[in-house]
Structures are given as C-alpha cells and as structure tokens.
Amino acid sequence: MNVNRALFDDVMVPNYNPAKMIPVKGEGSRVWDQEGKEYVDFAGGIAVNCLGHCHPAMVKALTEQGNKLWHLSNVFTNEPAIRLAKKLTDATFAERVYFANSGAEANEAALKLARRWALDKFGAEKNQIIAFNKGFHGRTFFTVTVGGQPAYSDGFGPKPGAVQHVDYNDLAALEKLMSEQTCAVMMEPLQGEGGVISPDAEFVKGVRALCDKYNALLIFDEVQTGFGRTGSLYAYQQLGVNPDILSTAKALGGGFPIGAMLTTTEIAQHLKPGTHGSTYGGNPLACAVAEAVFDVVNTDDVLTGVQKREQLFKAKLAEINEKYDIFKDIRGKGLLIGAELNDKFDGKARDFLNAAAEEGTMVLVAGPSVIRFTPSLIIPEQDIAEGLERFERAVAKLVG
C-alpha cells in the first residue's frame, strides 16, 4: 500500500487538513518524516509529548504492562489505576480521581459532576455554568458549548442550556452575572487555544471568592497547563487558589491517551454508581504509562528545568523580534509560550507555522495571530537553540 498524503484525502473525513509531510519516527525532541527529513519538535503534539518521543521510561512501562494486562471493564479495578490515583491525590488538593480517555471527557465528567452536585444539594434551579470567552474545553457538545469560541459550537443545532460567558480577567463582568443559580465557574488557569493569556493574580483570587460567596464550584481546566507545563505539577499551585474540580489530560499520558478528573471526597460522592462511566477510562495500559510519566515529571529537576527553558525561549524570541520586528508580545508561563504577531503580520500565524516546518521546526498557532510553543519539558538546550535558529531562518524568509 502506498501510504501518502493523497491517500489521507481519499479515506479520512475532511475535518482536518494536515501538513503534506507524514512523520514516521520520533526520538526525544526530534521527528523524521517519510523522506527522512528531520524536524525539531516545538509542538509536542499540542502540549502532549511532555517527555518527548519514545522516552525510555514510557517505552518500558508500556512494554511491561503490554505483556501483563491491557483492558478490563470497570466491573474490576486494576493496580496501575489505583497507584496513579494515589500519586495524583498525594500531589494535589484532590482526594478522589475519575479516569477518562481525553481532556474533553475529563471536562465532560467535571461538568456533569458540578450539575449533579448542585441538583442534589440545592435543587434544579441551581444549574448555571459560567465560562470565559476564547476558552477551550473540548469538542463534545457540552464541553464545546462551555468553551467560549462560538465558531466551534455553532451549526450543530440547539446547545445545552444555562451556559454563559464573560471575558477572561474581567472580574466585574463575572460578578454581575453570578448568583445563587450559579453551580460552577469553569476556567483555564492560563488560556491556551485562546491566545496564551495569563490570568491576573487578583482575578483568580476574585473568582475563587465569588464561587465561595454563591456556593458554586470552581473548575480548573488544566488539560493543557497541567503536568509540569508551567513549571509546577499543576498551574493552580502557583496561583494561591485551589479549585474544587480539576481536569487533566494531554501530558498526563505523555502521548498515550488518558484523562482524569480530580476532586474532593465530599463533591465526588455525588457521582454514585451508574451516574457516569467510561469503557476504556482507567485501563491498565494508559495508567501504567501515565504513572511512569508522573514519576519523571513530578521531580524538582524537571519542574525547575521547565522554568529555565522558558527563559531560553523568551530570550531568543526577543532577539528575533529585535531583528525583524514581528511580535507585539511574547508571553505565557513555563513551556506554554505564545508570541503574538504585531499589526503588520496580523492573522498570519499559520504562514509562520508553515515556513517553520519548511526549515525543519514544528510549531503551533493559538488563534490567527499567535505562534505557540509547547515542546517537551525536558527538551535539550541544544535542541532549543537549533530549533529557534531554524525558526529565525523561516522568519527571515517571510519578512524579507
């Protein structure tokens, strides 16, 4: 069979429009395509490959578990799931864990739990969910409705009700909308897809205080920010605020599909047997790999290394900007970095992504005008230097 990009167009639903090249091999922060061309990976599978490609600890865990036990129904539990849940609860505010397969599923569980908690404790009228414009929480109909990007949720008929949005970092707008009918506020502790937008410290504390005032749950979507991405295991740990529910996925499995919802014992009791479930959620393969990822990521060396690498990226991007004057802002935390194009290049982020790929660097976008970098948390410094040199060559070609 001749497996090429043209065959993709023949056999796949056209909701994606991937690059012409097809990657076939990865090692660390380098990727090779079918033609043998090598790329430095600053995309990380959209903040997923937190230990790069084919990390030995992950390969070992997958191989060992693959020779033991792959799947059970949730009529049974399994050792890797219990171990991973224990490690997650020991390292966070949480006391209970629910496993799913993706960030959208973890968020779906979080939202259903919030609604069920409110119904049980306060009655059916307490059902309002508030989220933020430009937020992103997944592609199920519930999560895409809660996400604050109508382009993703419009066109599929009537949406789930009692969901409203305000602007991120606008505490006054949130306060005006909240009431005793609010059951939950859902937010990213750093907006990713919406342009890599950091929250004001007072905003986060204000959201927590408003949730307390109105007996509403605070849900942190840490699908992209979690598992070391910002230089702590979870971003909330640097904000001085605890959520009531937290969703995690992406880097949790380092590339193996897994998601989780974390919460407290008191809130968790409202998902009684039969109220929610997942066929694959918590399967031994996924949990064994995620446990191996956890053991590497949740160390001082890796987490402090993220902060050091952040500075290397930002310093070099600032140098590039001094030469070519393309960025309005370079922002983000840890290795979730956004470089916003200035007015001269407004709306052209994808052109830079394509040009970077031509030069052998894989980057992302976050909206039409923000170039996003989410590499491995342990990317070698020489790969940062090499990748950004290639990126600079791409910039020079576009600007020149």
Structure characteristics:
Ac/SucOrn_transaminase_bac, alpha/beta, 400 residues, Aspartate Aminotransferase, domain 2, Aspartate Aminotransferase, domain 1, four-stranded mixed sheet, seven-stranded mixed sheet, 2 domains
Structure description:
This is Acetylornithine aminotransferase. It holds the Pfam family Aminotran_3. Keywords: Amino-acid biosynthesis, Aminotransferase, Arginine biosynthesis, Cytoplasm, Pyridoxal phosphate, Transferase. With 400 residues, the chain is α/β, with parallel strands linked by helices. The protein folds into two domains: 150 residues, Aspartate Aminotransferase, domain 1 (Alpha-Beta Complex), CATH 3.90.1150; 241 residues, Type I PLP-dependent aspartate aminotransferase-like (Major domain) (Aspartate Aminotransferase, domain 2), CATH 3.40.640.10. The chain contains 14 helices and 15 strands. The strands form three sheets. Strands 4-10-9-8-7-5-6 form a seven-stranded mixed beta sheet, sandwiched between helices. Helix 4 packs parallel to helix 11. The protein is globular.
Ordered list of secondary-structure elements with their pairings:
Layout (H helix, E strand, L loop, with lengths): L4 H7 L11 E5 L2 E4 L4 E4 L2 H4 L8 H11 L12 H13 L4 E5 L2 H20 L5 E5 L8 H6 L3 H4 L9 E4 L4 H7 L4 E6 L13 H13 L3 E5 L23 E4 L10 E5 L1 H4 L15 H14 L2 H25 L2 E7 L2 E6 L7 H11 L1 E2 L1 E2 L4 E4 L7 H19 L1
Parallel strand pairs: 3-13, 5-6, 5-7, 7-8, 8-9
Antiparallel strand pairs: 1-2, 2-3, 4-10, 9-10, 11-12, 12-15, 14-15
Family: Belongs to the class-III pyridoxal-phosphate-dependent aminotransferase family. ArgD subfamily.
InterPro entries: Ac/SucOrn_transaminase_bac, AcOrn/SuccOrn_fam, Aminotrans_3, Aminotrans_3_PPA_site, Class-III_PLP-dep_AT, PyrdxlP-dep_Trfase, PyrdxlP-dep_Trfase_major, PyrdxlP-dep_Trfase_small
Protein name: Acetylornithine aminotransferase
